[in-house]
Task: structure prediction
Amino acid sequence: MAKPCYGDESPIAALATASGESALALIRCSGTGCVELLSKVFSRPAKLRSAGGNTIVHGWIRRGGESIDEVLIFVYRPPRSYTGEEGADISCHGGTATARALMDVLRAAGFRDSLPGEFSFRAFINGKLDLTRLESVMELVQAKTGEGRRRALGRLSGRLREEIAALRGLLLEILAEAELYLDYDETELSLPGDAGSLPGREKAEGALERLRNLAGTWGRERLYQEGALAVIAGRPNAGKSSLFNALLGEDRSIVTEIPGTTRDWIEAAVSIGGIPLRLTDTAGLRGAGEPEPDRVERIGVQRSRELLEQADLVLYLIDGSRGFQDDDEAFLAKPASRNTPLLLLWNKADIAPLPDPPPGGRAFLSLSAKTGQGLAGLCEAVAGALEGGAGGENGGSASRNGAALGNRRQKELVDRAAAALEEALNLADRGEALELIAPSLREALDALGEITGEVSTAEILETIFSKFCVGK
Ligand SMILES: Nc1nc2c(ncn2[C@@H]2O[C@H](COP(=O)(O)OP(=O)(O)O)[C@@H](O)[C@H]2O)c(=O)[nH]1
Ligand SMILES: [Mg+2]
Result:
């Protein structure tokens, strides 16, 4: 049998829900003739074959004389379906055994297993959705927090597609004007301003600013999608494990009064201010004058340092009962920790309030990991510090109608469009002829077209859709 490939139009099927124990599951089918194929393994073949679009038929899936499951089949007729093709969703009972048995029946009936993202690929090919909206469906599926979900939904509703369409429209106007001049002999039509200047220059400058604003949205979007690594650091016994547990809302990390209790780092996923965080508790960083830690703890401390280098945010804890020490000062003075956003936390405020004025004239957040005092303020500060760090070079200024980028692919293409447009403006500044400027404008236009899929190749599409999950 030939290797299945995207775009071969054969009837496909896939389990669209997560496999495992559940009340119900959904198997999705698409492709010309798929209702006919299903009717061969269905208890009411005539009813299914004659079913209109967007209707539901109840019955049993059978193999020979054996009933496999009682199901509801949602029938779709083209073009009114997700893929634009004839389709059927089988709502069956959950659990791995049932889904597996039904998939076997479907394969025997002539369906093949869908490739990753193949339903979406077909939806794109059939003009149902553009790439930004299809990718947002994937972002929605992968959203880890409510805020991530809300942002993906904005793209699904078409905000990004609209902004890209508007920008393409602008570039097309500029290009059309430039080409008008190119078509005429210079003696018949004189260029506005200096010879070689770009007609529609103001439009191009406006478009460039909008592109930069759009590119600037990625830092923040990335934060909500991919999350951030927050590392809790500080001297032994500062209360790092206590804070880790308090933020998690459970006793995950061991807390004792014995310095050096945490020897290896522990990571857990939490959501703070809608940002998915990988929070890590680390072994305490001992000072020079303290007893040499044993071998295991020494490795733990080394790992703490490595984690600190990868961190997006450092939560540096001071043991308030012992005060701000030379070791703390030494840590904060290190260049590695100066580049990463850092929050200075004064812990154990329940027994040792933050002195006024605070030591070293530094800004501390006062809290108690034990009583929970100050934790709400800490969460706000964490979200603020990460958002500030993710603002990007232009401070993350909002783009038109709240459009925001959803993935690295889109970011790279917006950057490419901006660079090409900038090049066009530079060429115009140098008084180059329109023949030399126009290709840069076209390149910007093509890069934007790739974002929505108006410009695409089989290779580009396969790369995109193969990252989707099976059944999507
Ligand atoms: N009073 C008080 N004690 C705390 C607080 N946070 C931690 N501790 C105590 O400090 C000791 C060390 O805590 P732990 O979380 O293991 O510190 P780590 O070594 O930095 O992980 C334990 O006895 C904790 O009960 C706090 O906010 N207030
Ligand atoms: Mg600890």
Observations:
- The radius of gyration is 30 Å.
- The chain has a mean pLDDT of 87.
